[in-house]
UniProtKB/TrEMBL annotation:
NCBIfam families: NDP-sugDHase. One of its GO terms (biological process) is polysaccharide biosynthetic process. GO terms for molecular function: NAD binding; UDP-glucose 6-dehydrogenase activity. Its EC number is 1.1.1.22. This is UDP-glucose 6-dehydrogenase.
Length: 437
């Protein structure tokens, strides 16, 4: 099938590459000329495990092309995916200007039947708006379909190729057939394609992300309670997660959820609810808990240093909002850095993939260490903000020998508390007793 993907960011690039990998002829369109030039030249623009190999193969075999020219890019397409940004507007609602702008352009461009697919995360009613915007100038038939994306960064290729489900919102038989054929190869393993109306599909995406965020905030509050009552959140998590009705996943407490999606999508659903004259109380609490959780380690750090961080120096491991990505959008590490620097401390940071992005954002606000152990030089303590595998089994003797104090504040519960005690560390984590020296 001939497919065009408009917007070649995270979702667009994964979508385009995976469709090419399953034998489709894919053109990706982006207004960012530098990005298009890099991608056309074979240089991948995001860090995503497993994607580069597929990208290179499909580019070489001419199933994947890139252009800045929307009209040329969509000319032969049967299906046009819109994988455009939907950032939060000032009032927290999703900003639809990117999508509606392209919809308006498409109305003037398309001359034969196309299925136009909202892949972006968009509020209920957007498919209708896109339909109306295209229809203003369009002289041919077309359908607008809602097909939200559920991939996670870091495992995006697997999530796209073997999805738990594909949600397709359309009431058009013609579009349903096209989308069913296109996604058939991805759901052969038995997971379903769920056909529904456009509004239900749009709400499914927000409900899924908001529910996952709720699970995380819930466990973060349980972790706080564990510390107050002397329980161990690791034990509680296992005990709770063994119930199939609850499930083991997304119960890991930490320093809050970040990334480009949970924070903005929970906020957007709250705003949609307000617009519909409904106060979504649970989600307001979820956001509130998450805001506080990002700075969960700060009182512990302050308490250790008697509320005087002036002149103290911290090593910080992990900048990405989660492992296996270089994405630092809404990363809890950034909030910790802000708080430490505001209190008069200095920080040296290390991350396996996200250093360049942080350098662009923070410049000389922090210092950078290209190796995780160099990061520890002259530091009063180590703070861990992201659970990269490479941080899970470090050389503890080296850490102890390099840090000024054997002191670790771990926002991701990487180590066993009793072991840290044996090794002679003062070790503080989330929802578990501290090991003290
Ligand atoms: N990043 C993720 O893991 C996931 C994101 N989503 C949703 O997918 C949507 C896209 O997200 P990302 O890929 O992360 O965004 P992104 O910000 O990485 O990429 C968006 C791309 O669109 C391009 N663009 C902007 N205006 C354009 C125009 N007029 N014509 C052509 N290209 C244009 C930008 O240059 C950029 O390359 C959002 O709604 C997001 O909520 C959904 C699931 C997962
Ligand atoms: O709409 C989106 O963009 C995507 O948002 C999330 O994916 P992603 O943001 O890539 O990352 P997650 O693995 O969901 O993690 C999000 C945040 O939650 C945190 N988290 C996750 C799980 C957990 O148990 N505890 C926890 O604190 C992570 O550290 C991270 O900061 C969803 O998992 C995807 O299904 C969805 O498609």
């Amino acid at each position: 099938m001939k497919i065009t993907v408009v917007g070649t960011g995270y979702v667009g690039l994964v979508t385009g590459t995976c469709f090419a990998e399953t034998g489709n002829d894919v053109t990706c369109v982006d207004i960012d000329a530098a990005k298009v030039s890099k991608l056309s030249g074979g240089q991948i623009t995001i860090y995503e495990p497993g994607l580069e190999k597929l990208f290179e193969r499909n580019l070489k075999e001419n199933r994947l092309q890139f252009t800045t020219d929307l009209a040329a890019g969509v000319k032969d397409a049967e299906v046009i995916f819109l994988a455009l940004p939907t950032p939060p507007g000032e009032d927290g609602s999703a900003d639809l200007s990117y999508i509606l702008k392209v919809a308006e352009q498409l109305g003037n461009i398309i001359t034969d039947y196309k299925v136009i697919v909202d892949k972006s995360t968009v509020p209920v009613g957007t498919a209708e708006k896109v339909q109306a915007t295209i229809a203003k100038n369009c002289k041919c038939e077309f359908d607008v379909v809602s097909n939200p994306e559920f991939l996670r960064e870091g495992v995006a290729v697997d999530d796209f190729m073997k999805p738990d489900r594909v949600v397709i919102g359309t009431r058009s038989e013609r579009a349903r057939k096209v989308m069913g054929d296109l996604f058939g190869p991805f759901v052969r393993q038995g997971n379903p394609i769920l056909f529904m109306d456009e509004k239900s599909a749009e709400l499914t995406k927000y409900a899924a992300n908001s529910f996952l965020a709720t699970k995380i905030s819930f466990m973060n509050e349980i972790a706080i309670l564990c510390e107050k009552l002397g329980a161990d959140v690791d034990m509680v998590r296992r005990g709770v997660g063994s119930d199939d009705r609850i499930g083991k996943r997304f119960l890991f407490p930490g320093i809050g959820y970040g990334g480009s999606c949970f924070p903005k999508d929970v906020q957007a659903l709250v705003k949609s609810s307000e617009d519909a004259d409904y106060d979504f109380r649970i989600l307001n609490a979820v956001m509130d808990v998450n805001e506080k959780q990002k700075l969960f380690l700060l009182p512990k750090i302050n308490a250790f240093f008697n509320n005087d961080l002036k002149g103290k120096h911290f090593a910080l491991w992990g900048l990405a909002f989660k492992p296996n990505t270089d994405d630092i959008r809404e990363a809890p590490a950034l909030y910790i850095i802000d708080a430490l620097v505001a209190a008069g401390a200095t920080v040296t940071v290390h991350d396996p993939e996200a250093m360049e992005n942080v350098k662009r954002l923070l410049g000389d606000k922090v210092s950078y260490a290209s190796h995780q152990y160099d990061c520890l030089n002259d530091a009063d303590a180590l703070v861990i903000a992201t659970e990269w595998s490479v941080f899970r089994t470090p050389d503890f003797e080296k850490i102890k020998a390099t840090l000024k104090n054997p002191l670790i504040f771990d926002g991701r519960n990487l180590f066993d508390v009793a072991r840290m005690q044996e090794l002679g560390f003062h070790y503080e984590s989330v929802g578990r007793a501290a090991s003290t020296i």
